[in-house]
Design a protein that fits this description.
Elements (H helix, E strand, L loop, with lengths): L12 H22 L1 H9 L21 H6 L14 E4 L9 E4 L1 H17 L7 E4 L8 H13 L2 E4 L5 H11 L3 E4 L4 H10 L11 E4 L13 H9 L3 E8 L4 E4 L7 E2 L5 E6 L12 E7 L10 E7 L1 E2 L11 E2 L4 E2 L4 E3 L2 E3 L1 H8 L7 E8 L5 E8 L5 H15 L4 E5 L1 H8 L10 E4 L5
């Protein structure tokens, strides 16, 4: 199934739909015979799998949720344990982490997904990729990137996260053309380079593949973090959006107008709270059906991520849909003093204040059962005037201002990087109803 010869996203929309429906039939038939969870799911809801033959007919099937995965994790396994060669867990951002079991075929599929993503981001076998992300801790992304780069035929240097000194030593020794990192780490690299008089602008690095955090706003302009990086280091920035459950990624091309859907990997829907499809450009929950997954495939799985989508053809030649930046996660919606917020809107404001070195946001339930927001800010300035300036900035943008607590940047960095975490945590949901 996964060859380098044809990129399905460059076919016509009619051809893409025809391809996906052929693969959907295989996926549903596979689940009906191999998955304990979906056998019971079909029976419980009187679903005849033989009638699910078009993308439109998917709406007859009730969605699968994160709670289903948490409660009945191994009921999703479709193969014997001896066929599993890699175990992965989700980050647990929206609840208890979930285990996924991958077969050899699943790892080949992951490799193909990332191969498509690197090609989309103008990668080639002539490039060298500098991985600033972890390959351990049961993390899918690091392994997926490594496998995809091998399929691309590019050079790879595995450094891992943190340690700016080692990162720049690697850049000097290996001359990578791409870095792969969480974008909020790039300002730390820049700050280190400026302190050590390293001419970071005159290196081999021409682009960054950015994971885990958005770089653009709803109009596809660079957000404050993206603007800050670009103003300091004029390299190409490619945003990505992915999850363990999808086993797939949406990656930007050079035009930066949303992450491209790879139709070989998943069928994607965008649903409202009543599981009705939303229109193009409207916010909806990303809901996916895996194609080609052997170990633990999912059908109409609601990811919890709220996004927009766009279907007009891209100038890069791809006709598959594009996904906008993640507006927020459904379970992370905050209702604060009559205003509805997502953490991303708070991040955007904090990233725009130069004297804030780092931060974490905590949301709790107060004694009248509403949400409270407290932001721990790492800064060398801790005056009342600076606190007032921060709050005024929030009021100007969001009409409300959270509580501010100043800490040393070192202490905030510790909060951002708990030992169990594979990536920085900026948002802590401590509400009574959080899972």
């Amino acid at each position: 199934m996964f060859t380098n010869k044809v990129e399905i996203g460059k076919l016509t929309k009619e051809e893409i739909k025809q391809y996906q429906e052929q693969e959907l039939v295989k996926a549903v038939d596979y689940l009906a015979t191999k998955s304990k969870f979906y056998k019971e799911h079909f029976e419980k809801h009187n679903i005849n799998p033989a009638k699910i033959r078009t993308i439109e007919s998917l709406s007859d099937i009730p969605c699968t949720t994160k709670e289903d995965l948490q409660r009945k994790n191994m009921d999703f396994l479709c193969v014997e344990h001896k066929k599993v060669i890699d175990y992965i867990t989700t980050s647990g951002t929206l609840g208890n982490p979930v285990t996924f079991a991958a077969t050899e075929n699943d790892l080949n599929r992951l490799a193909h997904n990332e191969y498509l993503s690197f090609v989309c981001a103008d990668g080639s076998p002539d490039d060298i990729y500098h991985l600033m992300i972890t390959m351990d801790r049961r993390f899918m992304a690091g392994l997926a990137y490594f496998l995809g780069l091998r399929k691309l035929g590019a050079g790879i240097v595995r450094v891992g996260p943190g340690n700016p000194e080692l990162q720049f030593d690697t850049i000097k020794r290996i001359s990578p053309s791409y870095i792969i990192t969480i974008p909020s780490f790039i300002p730390s690299l820049i700050e280190f380079a400026e302190e050590k008089n390293i001419n970071y602008r005159d290196t081999s690095v021409k682009a960054a593949i950015c994971i885990g955090e958005p770089l653009r706003d709803n109009n596809f302009n660079l957000n404050k973090l993206g603007q800050h990086i670009k103003s300091k280091w004029d390299i190409n920035l490619y945003s990505t959006y992915a999850s363990t459950e999808m086993g797939a990624a949406f990656t930007e091309c050079i035009y930066g107008l949303g992450g491209h859907h790879h139709p070989e990997m998943i069928i994607v829907e965008f649903l409202d709270e009543n599981n009705v499809h939303v229109d193009e450009g409207e916010l909806g929950e990303v809901t996916i059906t895996n194609l080609g997954v052997e170990g633990m495939p999912l059908l109409r799985f609601k990811t919890g991520d709220i996004c927009t989508y766009y279907t007009d053809p891209c100038k890069c030649g791809r006709n598959s849909l594009r996904i906008g930046p993640v507006a927020g996660r459904k379970n992370q919606m905050i209702k604060y003093k009559g205003t509805t917020l997502f953490p991303s809107s708070l991040f955007e404001i904090l990233n725009d204040i130069s004297d804030i070195k780092n931060y974490v946001i905590e949301v709790t339930t107060n004694n009248i059962e509403t949400d409270d927001i407290s932001i721990k800010i790492g800064s060398n300035i801790k005056s009342k005037q600076f606190e007032k300036a921060i709050k005024d900035h929030f009021r100007a943008k969001l009409r409300v201002a959270p509580a501010i607590v100043f800490e040393s940047p070192k202490e905030v960095a510790k909060l951002q990087h708990p030992e169990s975490s594979r990536k920085p945590i900026l948002f802590f949901d401590k509400r009574k109803n959080s899972k």
